[in-house]
Amino acid sequence: MTEAAISIQGLSKIYKGGKQALTDVTLDVPRGSMFGLLGPNGAGKSTLINILAGMVVKTAGKASIWGFDIDEHPRNAKASIGIVPQEILFDPFFTPFEMLEIYGGLYGVPKAKRQSMELLRKVHLEDKANAYARTLSGGMKRRLLVAKALVHNPPVLVLDEPTAGVDIQLRQQLWEYVRELNALGTTVVLTTHYLEEAEELCDRIAIINHGQVIANKPTHELLQMAQEKAVTVTVDRDLTEVPQAPCFERIALKGDRSIVVTYSKDKVNAGEVLAALQSAGLGIVDVSTHEADLEDIFLNLTREAA
């Protein structure tokens, strides 16, 4: 099927009191993709997710999940999505196994088809199946929320800051499992403040700021938007001042013998920068370059839209 996993057209939300959380948001999440939804705190990401979850009523626009309009077919839309929220909220008096069994029942999954223990195994909580959930650590509780979101085997999984408070090893285990789900066909939508995660995991990224979509591109195209590049050069003698050249955007002294030159890669190349330094009488001992990453682009885009 070529229809988008999530399709949003002209979505707006104005809260009581007049706060505009979303303004005419339009975007499609391709089926089978790993889609990043990024933005500063308060940008509108959680409002958008809560509208899809049926927890917030939109003011205007349309949204569908797996082809089901959230207004016309709310039950089918909710059955097509699993959401892992930012907040760790669940009944502390049930064991993880009991919790997954209860939620499986609420979603209408027949007892014989529930995979509660398998889900606990996948999120590395099999040994905690019969422990009270209130005794679990913060990272364990977050992984339990991932399992809870998957009890009805939804084709779309939304992860809202899933690795907040999770240590590095458990974070890697979680991403390994999410990659497995995606490889098997699950569409994954990820919000995260760890931009290196989004850069590594997502094949497409949308950035929201002040309730509006300011970018929506394949990850590799988004990374190509940055034209600035930096080169750090170690020279053969101590410097008290830095040379100047038309091809330098900026130049700064970093230690007695190291300078950092920033240039626009759509205008010049690193060879021209090095040639300009040599023309100034400097001998080059060592060179290293820095390409702009998603964090640089994110900061530039959100700064421009502020």
From TrEMBL:
GO molecular function: ATP binding
InterPro entries: AAA+_ATPase, ABC_transporter-like_ATP-bd, ABC_transporter-like_CS, ABC_transporter_ATP-binding, P-loop_NTPase
Residue ranges constituting the ABC transporter domain according to the UniProt record: 6-235
Keyword annotations from UniProtKB, A to Z: ATP-binding, Nucleotide-binding, Transport
Protein name in the entry: ABC-2 type transport system ATP-binding protein
